[in-house]
Amino acid sequence: MQNKYSRLYSVKLSGSELERIHYVFTEEQKAHTDNIKNGFTGYEGCLFSAKQILKRINPVIKKADL
Hints:
- By secondary structure, the chain is mainly α.
- Helices cover 67% and strands 0% of the residues.
- The chain has two helices and no strands.
- The chain has helices spanning 15-37, 44-64.
- The radius of gyration is 14 Å and the shape is flat.
């Protein structure tokens, strides 16, 4: 059985769309980190996902000089 998330996709985004994605996931990362610091549980998976997305977006943002 094939993992439904195993495929890669190519997507064209404008600079403003990339900036918006970066902003949203940076804020999400901050919020999940604060929630964990405040003792709330269940945010570790969300924090990991946000970090993984930022890990992929940051080089694109840097290359595009946004």
